[in-house]
Amino acid sequence: MSAPDQAAIMAFAEAKVSPGRLLINGTWMEGQAGERDVISPLTGASLTTLTQASAADVERAVTSARQAFEDGRWRMMPPAGRKAVLHRLADLIDRHAVELAVLGVRDNGTEIAMALKAEPGSAAGTFRYYAEAIDKVNGEIAPTADTVLALIHREPVGVVAAIVPWNFPLMIGSWKIAPALAAGNSVVLKPAESASLTLLRLAELALEAGVPPGVFNVVTGPGRVTGEALALSMDVDVLVFTGSGPTGRRLLTYAAQSNLKRCYLELGGKSPNIIFADAPDLGLAAKAAASAIFRNAGQVCVAGSRLLVQDDVADDVIAGLISATKAMTRGNPLDLKTQIGAVHSAEQLAGNLGFVADAVAQGGHIATGGARDMIETGGYFMQPTVVTGVKPQDRLFQEEVFGPVLSVTRFSDEAEALRLANASTFGLASGVWTANLSRAHRMIRGIRAGVVHVNTYGGADGTVPLGGVKQSGNGHDKSLHALDKYTDLKTAWIQL
User: Fold this and answer.
1) Cα–Cα distance, 363 to 389 (Å, whole number)
2) What is the torsion angle, in degrees rounded to the nearest 10, for the CA atoms of residue 397, residue 402, residue 403 and residue 406?
């Protein structure tokens, strides 16, 4: 994907957006539960409308997926055929990258420079990665006595339901759709009701690429209807979800109440970013700390939302952090120079501001930011906010904000840094800045998180897994390990 210029971006910025519909068995249709306005966070105004699926619509989509799986139109296609289809889809994503990125920005508020890379850029790469895995991931022959042949087959699980959040719908959706399809499954996708448009466009491109009807279905609507119906369905084999902890708990309950479907949940984080006095470049660490929390307005599951900084250098690091924060460009998210996007919704903005108010009430100090921004646009923008003096028992230290709000806490030594890092119910990501190789490895071993960055923050590509521990969930997206969620193992024990 070549880098677009601003004119190419703006050419899509005012385009009329067609109403969103359901995709069931290769046919676009209206849902039975009415429609809702899609509100753009850039303006606070309606962008288009989105049809709402009923529980009956969801079950029709599941039935379509089951029929497609059972008749083998996709799973029994030769691996080279499925590989070619997914490569064509990746090429189509690249061809329509600017359109997809702009549509996503208008729908969920991510700054366009990040959206281009994180949404169509990542999605195309993800589909290519799993397309190439199709004819390279094999079964096994187990070591046995000479009188027995033991084969271990990998088989698709069947019908996969994927529930995707609003912050990076195309990227996170592809993390789930691509390996599920590569393994030979059928998919029913439920995008977030407030950010469905790019995934609906992806579904159009999937049909164009040659994904057979019924293999990839999309149902839109509120989680309390569509998500619940998928989780309660007796014909969904695996449910994958990225979103909030309370919703994840409900999905587990629904799975238990129905067919005991496997649930893989990614439930967010409150990730510590730890700067030791011996960091190789304190200025770089401070600048990276700002980027780690304020890109996409902090609406990133792995965001470094808790900055832990050693006492000896805390004043200098905080000064550098504030300087870097103030230097980040705020403005129209469709401008390539903008570095901080919009908050996704009015409700999210109100919640973010509530966290700041609580932090101040608990003794925190607003070092910069703390208020709504760009009110004249009608959109939902917030100043990037740094709160110092945050204590481990404070709400801002413990709870995920999912907004541009950074807590700063000081520590004295390595032992205290590790205690603070693990003083959370979450365990998704983390960062460590140190020039001491032994300390880096001790921290990697000691921090309870699925990802530990060292002398950087973010940027891990699709070759490595992303998943959490504790209340950040289970299972992994990305890498070949993601295929484990979408395949079953079958043993063939053959007496010779």
Assistant:
1) 7
2) 30
pLDDT value for 151: 98
**Is-contact 429 271, C-beta < 8 A?**
yes
For the question of residue 263 being annotated catalytic, the response is no
Catalytic residue among 301, 376, 400, 414: 301
386: β partners: 368, 406
**CATH number of the domain residue 118 falls in:** 3.40.605.10
Residues of the chain with pLDDT under 50: none
Give the Cα separation of 453 and 40 in Å (integer): 34
Q: How much is the pLDDT for 1?
A: 64
**Catalytic residue list contains 35:** no
Tens digit of each residue's pLDDT (9 = 90 or more) over 348-365: 999 999 999 999 999 999
Examine the domain organization and report whether 294 and 320 are in the same domain.
yes
Catalytic residue among 266, 376, 399, 416: 266
The reply to whether 238 and 276 lie within a common domain is: no
- CATH, residue 372: 3.40.309.10
pTM: 0.97
466 occurs within a structural domain = no
Query: Which contiguous run of DSSP H or E holds residue 406?
Result: strand 405-411
Residue 4: the pLDDT is 81
